[in-house]
Amino acid sequence: MQIRLSWQMLAAVLIFLVALFIVGRSITRLVTGPGQASGAVATAAPAHDALPSAVPLSPTGSPAVSPSASPTALPASPTALPASPTALPTPAPSPTSPEPTATVAAPPTATPALPPSPVPTAAPAAVRVVAQGFAQAEANVTYAFTIQNPNPDLIARDTRYQIVAYDGSGIVLRTDSGLIAIIGAGQQTGVVGELTLSAGRQVARIEVVLGRGLFVQAVPLPPISAENVAIVPGEIPVVTGILRSPYQQDLEDLAVVAILYDAGGSIIGGGSATVPFLPGLGQAAAEVPVHYAGEPAGIELYPQISTLLSP
Which of 10, 65, 125, 267 is deepest in the core (most CB within 10 A)? Predict the structure, then answer.
């Protein structure tokens, strides 16, 4: 059976499809925007395939019109494809300056404290012999010398000495030795002793040899003064004088040395003795037997203390 369609029916269907396409495209543009209009066209194109496959004819030979013969209605609006997300431009990373790195200072290394270097001090000056001499009467020889401590802030202690007696040819006739307990800072003292020679020996000179001794820090050590010193002639001449003590304590068995000088300042003799008692801050008389050769022109009296005293 041959199905014939009138040209009016076909024109109507075509006009309907075109109108439907235009309406769908407009709706697509309104809904999705211009970016997806092309997608709507592509989706609406298959609407041409919606024509009916067969149209029944009426008994008169013209096609029968029935509700079922109407063309299949297309959906009101084509299915819009989902819009692809528009990629936003990614800003290029701006060059960033490197973050400053905090520099952690190393803790200071503790330097071990060094012991203070000792301050060098000048070596004390050695005690020295100021003058020396002797007097000989037959086999008996009296020697005497004065010694000085030049250090103004040091006391000389335990200074040893040796006396050597020579004849004219340099032969040693006799020796003697002793110890000087204390010489005050910057002070001077005297030493007197005796030698006994073999018969017929004559001393031409003497020599004083001093040891180094010890030095300690000076303390107040005022000397014991001697006043009214004089020589009293006699079978055994004596030197007398008055001793005055600057110390609080009493002194017992105080050694006293007398030295005699000629007019030229040379030592020509001397002697030593012991004062039994000298009261504190008081006075006592001293009497010292002496031996000398020639005419004395000067006398020195030296009280000698053996321990450090407090004024």
Answer: 267
CA–CA distances in Å: residue 201 to residues 29, 102, 114, 177, 293: 159, 100, 66, 20, 17
pLDDT at 300 over 60: yes
Closest among 219, 241, 224, 221 to 232, alpha carbons compared: 241
Q: Which residue has the higher pLDDT, 27 or 152?
A: 152
pLDDT of residue 297 exceeding 70, the answer is: yes
Of 72, 93, 180, 92, whose CA–CA distance to 129 is shortest? 180
**Token digits of residue 117:** 């270097």
261-287 per-residue burial string, b: 16 or more CB within 10 A, e: under 16? bbeeeebbbbbbbebeebeeeeebebe
Place of tokens 């300042």: 265
Note the pTM of the prediction, 2 decimals: 0.62
